[in-house]
Structures are given as structure tokens and as C-alpha cells.
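Dear support,

We are seeing what looks like truncated structure output for some complexes. This example has two components. We would appreciate it if you could run it in full and send us the complete C-alpha cell output so we can diff it against ours.
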Amino acid sequence: MVTTMRQQMEAFTHDLRDRICSAFEALDTAKFEQTAWKREGGGGGGVMSVMRGRVFEKVGVNCSSVWGDLDAEMAAKLHSASTAFYATGISLVAHMANPMVPAVHMNVRYLEMDRWWFGGGTDLTPYYPFEEDVRDFHGALKGACDAHDPAYYPRLKQWCDEYFFLPHRNEPRGVGGIFFDYLNDRPAEALFAFVKDVGEAFLRVYPMIVARRKDLPHTPAQREYQLQRRGRYVEFNLIYDRGTLFGLKTKGDVEAILMSLPPVVTWK
Amino acid sequence: MVTTMRQQMEAFTHDLRDRICSAFEALDTAKFEQTAWKREGGGGGGVMSVMRGRVFEKVGVNCSSVWGDLDAEMAAKLHSASTAFYATGISLVAHMANPMVPAVHMNVRYLEMDRWWFGGGTDLTPYYPFEEDVRDFHGALKGACDAHDPAYYPRLKQWCDEYFFLPHRNEPRGVGGIFFDYLNDRPAEALFAFVKDVGEAFLRVYPMIVARRKDLPHTPAQREYQLQRRGRYVEFNLIYDRGTLFGLKTKGDVEAILMSLPPVVTWK
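Here is the complete output from our reference environment:
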């Protein structure tokens, strides 16, 4: 039996999702709830897992596999000569109750259009940054990158800094991480091994950061600052984020796409 | 002394702003605070007036006059062969403390590029709609329209319904109103008279709606529903709104442009 990259990627992302959800539940008192969705007027769908807890104020993990035809404009944006597409991946955003715990985003995806490619990354958004957290987060990602190509980490770190940037505020979104797209410069199996290591690095480092910050004392003013800064997360995701735009354009499930938005936000 | 349309429009919008702010202050216990801003790296600027009160949870009124050069892409979007632009106008968004009071947006603007035109409109977003409010709001706008052209109201109402629509949710933003852009089908003085009447109609009808709803009792669940529905306002303004995009692209003041965002929002 031949296992395609689509199948391997689906199997990996589902397994990663299950292990991430278990790790997060172990840090909280709530449980994830899963909702399956089907793509309106097209092929595929996904499963959204959401937990609203005392530590994880709102965390969403979405696994989806979708296919069909893009409009010509969207296909051109993806540099594809053909409009037929297949996409599978996992996407995660966590907004935390305690302002001392950084918010986080992680995504890995595999696409097929006129060619195949991998994309993804993970980036950390602390409101009160601890140098130790930033160092550990970047250290884990550097480890995952270096095992595959010593050029990856500096390149993908810079790509992340450039991508998660709010031009209208001239501000980075957080303390970065790694970001990559259109990666197809080596055999698919080799890149699949790389994105797996990115997922594993995330699973190793982020729960550890949550564990050491979740019970730190904080003031109402610090909580208020967190709610205000979350506005930047909303601005980025709705104005600039490619994944959000892609999801909305391909008529993905709105709740699954916008699960990245924080539970409570203020604009002052 | 020759008075240009730029000068007339500026004088009108400043006067309208002052009268709107007085009318809103008369309904609340707070006062507007004004902040002047200059356009970074370009000509012009504006004055943002913001009140955070007990009735008006957050209301922003921005008067601006800006000029310079657009990039070619933005100029093409505005159907202009030249990139030089001048724009002046007033923009207002009110988010109300009591969920029984509708949120509102109003804007009138005058632009000069390879030609001149007027744009603007006003639309109402109730969370718990009262038929009387919807009828009065639309009635005031129909009156303003009909005095100039009986074809305006049906056309501009439909334009509003089409513009203030969230495709990703397949939902209108609220109960509509009127919307218009690129209006230059009659002499500038005649269209100026029309946009003045739109502004006056707004000033007549919206404070009246606020006055009759602001003290209505409501439950915490109704307040929570309002905060959730405000998410749609954020989604529309950041994903679709032309004025927001224009402002960010022309390096307007970020706080003035994003003053339209609600003070507190939830995504559940």
C-alpha cells in the first residue's frame, strides 16, 4: 500500500493535535471540545478543538483537509498556474488567562497546486516577556531547524520577523519564532521530517513555558494591558494574515478560521 | 474672495462635528477630548474627538484633511489616472454602553484626484432592534435624499446593504442606512448641499434614538451578546472597510483610523 504525503501529513497532524490537547489539558481543569465542519460548496472539512479553561482562556486547534478550485486571483497570489488545490494542516492559537503567560500561534501545512509545498511556523507573543521563555522558545526552534539545515533557523527567524509585523503600527507582533512558506527545495519526505520536528519542538517548549508562568501573581492593570495588546493580534489576523484570508476565500468554516481571535479584547 | 469646495467642506464638517459633540455631551456626563494629529511623511492631518462616557461607551469623531500622492495600486483602486490626492471629511463611530442603543457610523468626505467626488453615508447597528428606531433612522435619510433626487434613497440604501455586508458570515452589518461613493453626477455645489443634508439628518435622528433607549433596563446576558456582536464590527472594519484601508495606506493616524473599533469585544 502506498502512503501519500497527504495521508502522512494528515496522520501526523491529527496525532500531534491529540498530544498537544492532552498536554494542555494536563495544565488546566477544563477539557477540549471537538466540532467537525464541512467546507461549504466544496471538498473537505476539518475538526476544530477548543478549550476554555482557567489557564487557557481560549485555545483553538484546527485540523483541516480541503480541496477544490481557487479563483484565479487567489491562485495567482499563491504563484500557481492552475487553480485546483489541496491543503491539509494543523493550526493553533492560544490566548492565556494570566498576562504573564505568552500567547502562541503554531501552524504546519502541506499544499498541492501546480506543485507541492510546505508552510508553517510558530511565534510567541508575551505581554510581559521573560528572557528565559524567549530563549527557550527560540532555542527549541533552532534545534528543530539545525537538525535539517543550519541555514534554516536564521532564514526562517527573519522571515517570521518580517511576516508577523504590523506596518500600520510599525511594531512586531511579539518576540517572533520561525515562519516559512512555499518550501519545496528538497524532497517532500525530507521537508515532512522538518515540519514534524517543528511540531514536536512546539509541543516540548510551549507547555513548559505555560507551566512555569501560569500561577504567577499579576495585577488588574497587567490584565488590562494584556486585553489591550490583544487588539494587535486581531488587527494582524484580520488585516494581514494569509491563512485567515485563504480560509475565508476558500469558504472554510468561519468559526474555525476566526478561532484565532482572542476571547476578550479592548481598544483604548 | 473665492471659497473653494475644499474650504466649504472643511468648514461644514468642523461645524457639524462641534454640533454633534454638543448633542452627544448633552446626553452623557462626560466630555469629548480632542487630539490633533499630523500625517506622517505627508501633507495634512486632523483632529480626533473622543468621549468615553456612561451612555457613549466610546465615541470617536475624526475630522481630517490630507493630501499628497497615493501609490499606483491605491490610485487604480480609486479609478484615478493620477496619484495626487486631496481628501477632507468627517467620520464618526459610536459604541454604546447599553445594548438597547444601536451603534452607529457616519461619514461624509470630499476627494480630489484626476476628478473630484463625494462619498459617505451612515448606517445603524442595533443589537436589540426596535422597529421605531429603524423606521426613524431610514425616514430621516429618505427625507435628506428625496429633497435632492427621488432616485437617491432606494439606490443609496441598496448600496449600503451591499457595502456593509460580511461575506464570510453571510450577514449584513446591521439594519443599513445609506452609502455612496464617487458621486459627481451633478455640480459640486449641489452634491455639497446633499452631503450637508445627510449630516444634518444624522444629527437630528441619532441623538433622538439614543435619548429614548439609553436608560432601558437590560440583563448581563444582553450586554454579553452586544460584546460578541461587536466582533462583527471589528471583522468588517479590518477585513473590508475601504476607509480603514485608505487611512492605513495613506499613513493616517492609526489611533484616528482605528477609533472605529469597539472599546470591549468578545469572540466566543
